[in-house]
Every structure is written in C-alpha cells, then in structure tokens.
C-alpha cells in the first residue's frame, strides 16, 4: 500500500510518502497559499518515489492549512497525527512536546498511542518558533544558528514574555554589552520555561519526546531538560511526525 501524509503548517509544510519498502520526506515554506504548497509537496513526493498520483492508495491532510487544501483527501487534527507519528517512532513516549512556528502543544498518550489529554498555546508567540525567529532576526542570525551560538554558562535572563517587549529588551542588553551567547541561552530558557509550565499543567510522564521544527534547536531541548528535570528525546524525523502520523492513519494503521 502507498500512502501520503501532508502537514500544512503555519510556517512550514511537510510531506511523507510511505511505500512498502521506502519512506520519502519533504519540507517547504508554507508561503501564502496552503493549497499551492500542498500541491508542490505532493508532486515532489511522487517524483522522488517515481510514481503517479493514481498509484497512491490513500492520502490524509493535517495542520493549520488542512481546510484550504482541498485535494481528494480526508483531514485529521494535528493532535491525532502527532500522537500517531510519535507512537510509531518511539512506542515508549508518554508526553509529546511539539513546538511549531506559531503554537506549542503538549500531548499525553498511553501505551497504545491513544491521546489522553492535550494543552495548547496558540494565543501568543512566546514559547513558539515565531518568538525565536523574531529574536534571531534582531540578533542578525538565522534561526538555525541559535543553538550553536548559545553559551549557557553566562545565561542572561530575559524578563519580557511578550515578543515585542523581549525584542526591545534584547536591543537594550546588546547595547549594554551583554554577551550574545548568554542572551541566546536566555531566549532558549524563556521558551523552555513557558512550554514546561504548559506541560506541568497536563502532568509530565516519561518518556518525553520533543517534536516540531523547534525540536531541531538543541538549546531549547537543553532548556526543557533543565526545566523539567528529565531527559527529553528528539527523533531524527522531529519536524515530520504530523505528516508521518497522517500517512500512517491514511493506511488505516
Ligand atoms: P508549523 O507546523 O507550525 O509550520 P514547524 O513545526 O514546521 O511549524 O516549525 C517551524 C519552526 O521551526 C520555525 O518557526 C523555526 O523557528 C523552527 N526551525 C526551522 N528550522 C530550524 C532549524 N534548522 N533549527 C532550529 N529551528 C528551526
């Protein structure tokens, strides 16, 4: 059976094609049209696999842009897809922390991968990838460079929760000569604290698995481990768990 899962996110759109012997992945910026990016992702996956759309048995779409993408596909919530994807990659997972471009969520799952409860922050950019993107921009860096540039030994606490105020705070800290590496460690700590509070509200059980685009940032993982006083695992396919879950659910598994 060949299935496709699409996760049309607010910032990045991800696709996974599952065939009996291979998996294919692609991520593209969502841009202005969820429908266009969905089509691009699908055609790229078909090209990678060397097949036609008629060869795909089932396709399922999730993510923020799922309603706008009206391919011949079913849609499923991100929570169900992330839970399914993480359970497949890491059956021991009981708590999923997903930090994406515009929201962060914590999902509790049981030993069968069933969702028990979830909590979500989608009202405010603090504790999301957007917060880190704005701050990276202020520091004249790419978001992918933040982790390698942090210096936790001289962490500078960032007091402003609001993204706009935090940006002004950083400009002030830089002007006063605070170390850039310490400021970056402070930004990671700020995201870690915010998301750990959300997780504690739900109750944190090990194993904790960290997913979403921000899970690629080892500094945020470090901060979460400090805040939760637990190991936090990041699967290699961390940004693709929603799309993978969608492809697995499309297969009825
Ligand atoms: P969404 O599904 O909401 O669009 P994703 O889970 O795909 O979001 O995550 C997108 C976020 O991931 C971006 O806002 C950015 O902050 C972060 N990100 C993307 N690539 C990297 C990277 N290489 N290192 C660290 N963070 C990254």
Describe how the helices and strands are arranged.
Layout: E1 3-8, E2 12-18, E3 23-29, H1 34-49, E4 58-62, E5 74-75, H2 78-89, E6 95-99, E7 104-109, E8 115-121, H3 129-138, H4 146-149, H5 163-175, H6 180-202, E9 208-211, H7 218-228, E10 232-233, H8 241-250
Parallel strand pairs: 1-4, 4-5, 6-9, 9-10
Antiparallel strand pairs: 1-2, 2-3, 6-7, 7-8
Describe this structure in words.
The protein is of the alpha/beta class and 253 residues long. The chain folds into two domains: 3-79 and 241-250, 2-Layer Sandwich (Nucleotidyltransferase, domain 5); 93-234, Nucleotidyltransferase, domain 5, CATH 3.30.420. It is 39% helix and 20% strand. It contains eight helices and ten strands. A five-stranded mixed beta sheet has the order 3-2-1-4-5. It has a five-stranded mixed beta sheet with strand order 8-7-6-9-10. The longest helix has 23 residues, at 180-202. The radius of gyration is 19 Å and the shape is globular. The model has no long low-confidence stretch (mean pLDDT 94). It binds adenosine-5'-diphosphate. The site of adenosine-5'-diphosphate has 20 residues, from α3.
